[in-house]
Amino acid sequence: MNTFKSSLIKNGSYINGNWQTQCAEKFSVSNPADGSIICDLCDGNEQDAESAVAAAHAALPAWRAKTVKERSVLLRRWFNLLIENQDELATIMTLEQGKPLSEAKGEINYGANYIEWFAEEAKRVYGDTIPGPSPEKRIVIIKQPVGVVTAITPWNFPNSMITRKAAPALAAGCTFVVKPAMETPLSAIALAVLAEEAGIPAGVFNVVVSSQSRKIGAVFCSDPRVAKLSFTGSTEVGSKLLAQCAGTIKKTTMELGGNAPFIVFDDADIDSAVDGALASKYRNAGQTCVCTNRILIQEGIYDEFASKLTEKVKSFKVGNGLEKDVIIGPLVNIKAAESMESMVRDAVAAGASLLTGGNRSDLGECFFEPTVVSGVTMRMNIARDEIFGPIASLIRFSSEEEAIAIANDTVYGLASYIYTRDIGRIWRVSESLEYGMVGINEGIISNEMAPFGGIKQSGMGREGSKYGIEDYLEIKYLCMGDLDK
Ligand code: SIN
Questions:
Q1: What is the pTM for the complete model shown?
Q2: Residue from 39, 221, 289, 291 carrying the catalytic annotation
């Protein structure tokens, strides 16, 4: 058992302002860097999920009735507390998730920024007036909170994937219940401790920690008191949740899988493209939906780009995220490391060549070496599937048309990247890419001011930006008649 202690960690769910820490069934949270148990938590069940939904439903009228300024002030306090506790929150995250501490600190900041942003956007939920169809009529549009929102969030970004759903929901006047991933519930618990300290009323923000994802998900998707489900995770699970939500016609936001192309043209600034590819590919050890999955390089610069990229990847320090200068931490679990191994093996068997890495690391069961694979084609699994690990796969192309065709040859449509100095090409390619987001000479595109989201089987809805709050609002049309009397 790990000896780490923090006042931001409680041993169970946070429902209606109460901590559920007495129970018979528990589950353990472990550190992927060394397999040690960090702590045991009360395992939330279906009754807990129902209680959380009931609490959110009961808290809704009073929360919705607050002025936007009142909600905004509470959100701002929550934001301040995240920033004040950034170091402790980051340590908790690295312990349970594995990412390097510097990245964890970055994520706390990123997550907090969503709360700050939506504390401000709360004040800008404007309605509309529309010319009426006849002299005695007027049309007025108001916007109202959708109601109780449930969320299911992933282990790869244990803080920010919660805040970017909870902040717009609370800002809009909705109440909220989240079930975080069972691998990383401590960051969610810490968020609830700080929400309570900020003065967010009981029942407005609830956390159900549980190892029983399917059962909790079933309550979230079927309870008629729930108006909306917001999910970040795989396309496979997202599609099942969508089917379950159909029964009660819930609104949904789905942020699902990706297969991001990173296209480098002959005229690109190669050093800048290499740095962009490294940042996009190896952030969070490659466990990111917007991570570069396929690096498409034009033939004239292929060898130079491949060699520069490989040299830098060879210099990456792999290790426990709490150690200094570590760039690549452990993967989430052994299964993930095994999956990297088999993807590389299959690609090499199909004709690709290994420029560096390719093996499980002897640092621990969940570690995989940062890897570069050259000569990848779209017939290989490594190009078709979402890698979700530290493997860069390099694909050679000759023309702009060919690059676009390869880039779009996938069911996914989340993030894409292009590197070129040609302004005409920037527009042509950006408009042709079937993706919700395009990084242009830039490998890091995520921030609270921009609309994050995908098309095709990468999901629906947008998170962040002025558009992000719309997903938590209903439009109501008021038709005023008889005005000529
Ligand atoms: C994700 O991987 O789902 C989110 C990544 C990000 O916000 O950049």
A1: 0.97
A2: 289
